[in-house]
Amino acid sequence: MFIVVVLGIGWAVGYVTAPSEWYANLNKPFFNPPGWLFAPVWSILYVLIAIAGWRVWNAGESTLKLLWIIQMVLNFLWSPAFFGIQMPALALVIILVLLVTIYAFIAKAWNRDRTSALLFLPYAAWVTFATLLNGSIVVLN
């Protein structure tokens, strides 16, 4: 169930806020990945996030549940801020808070549910990269 919900919301947010001509016209850093890469990467990450969420939910750890929920809300807010209302600076603030929340989840889960913490490591790496990309777009534009 977690996988269906997380993937479904992720795909819906991605569909509604798909990059437009506005994004195509932005100055981007040399390390900007090709557009086709985002959907498969996020699909894999959402599966990992969902599995971790399911594990945390079943374990009953309230702090981990809260961190998982907060990071999902922030994750789903980023695209509307960046692509929807076209405010990369606001999106940068959101993704920075998201990144802190992801690392807080990993740190808190490390001794309680190592598997969930490990499932979040690729997510942390990708969001770290996305934060650098978002910040670079803010600076370049």
From TrEMBL:
User: Any keyword Membrane?
Assistant: yes
Q: Which GO terms describe its biological process?
A: tetrapyrrole metabolic process
Coiled-coil ranges from the UniProt annotation: none
Keywords attached to this entry = Membrane, Transmembrane, Transmembrane helix
Membrane-spanning residues where? 35-54, 66-83, 89-106, 118-140
- How does the UniProt record describe the way this protein sits in the membrane? Multi-pass membrane protein
| Compartments where found | Membrane
- InterPro entries membership: TspO/MBR-related_sf (IPR038330), TspO_MBR (IPR004307)
Pfam families for the chain: TspO_MBR (PF03073)
One GO CC annotation, please?
A: membrane
Similarity-based family: Belongs to the TspO/BZRP family.
PANTHER family on file:
PERIPHERAL-TYPE BENZODIAZEPINE RECEPTOR (PTHR10057), TRANSLOCATOR PROTEIN (PTHR10057:SF0)
Quote the protein name from its UniProt record.
Answer: Tryptophan-rich sensory protein
Q: What is the lineage of its organism?
A: Bacteria, Pseudomonadati, Pseudomonadota, Alphaproteobacteria, Hyphomicrobiales
Gene this protein is translated from:
tspO
